[in-house]
Amino acid sequence: YSNNSDSRETWTFSQGGISITWPKNATEDTTVTGTYTMDARFAKAYVNIGNLNFTQFTNSGFTSADLNRAWTIVELNNGILYLSATDNRGAIRSIEFLEQ
């Protein structure tokens, strides 16, 4: 679950790099960076997120260990991207993106 009532974040995917930005306080933002690759197979497609290295939680409650993995693309349609993966504790985690 999110660690606060406002779990908005900005995720930017560009040329194999990923950045995640969320409000740190009223005047500052926190930004973390990593990498991503796409893996399209016959039955499923994945976004592999890696090289995120931070100790805090994102606004949506994820740690870098939660995010660094292969995420199944569940839906990609009309500006919506929905990813799902199983974390290290065996829980299914999901992320929904809206295109800006």
Walkthrough of the structure:
The protein has 100 residues and is mostly beta strands. The protein is 4% helix and 52% strand. The chain has 1 helix and 7 strands. It has one helix at residues 64-67, and strands at 10-14, 17-23, 29-40, 45-50, 70-77, 80-86, 92-98. The chain has a 7-stranded antiparallel beta sheet with strand order 1-2-3-4-5-6-7, with no helix packed on it. Strand 2 (17-23) and strand 3 (29-40) form a beta hairpin. The two termini are 24 Å apart. The model has no long low-confidence stretch (mean pLDDT 90).
Task: Describe the structure using short key phrases.
100 residues, mainly beta, globular
Helical fraction equals under 10%
Largest sheet: 7 strands, antiparallel
Q: Strand order, main sheet: write it out.
A: 1-2-3-4-5-6-7
Measured between the Cα atoms of the first and last residue, the distance is 24 Å
Morphology call:
globular
Short description:
The chain is mainly β and 100 residues long.
Topology:
Elements: E1 10-14, E2 17-23, E3 29-40, E4 45-50, H1 64-67, E5 70-77, E6 80-86, E7 92-98
Antiparallel strand pairs: 1-2, 2-3, 3-4, 4-5, 5-6, 6-7
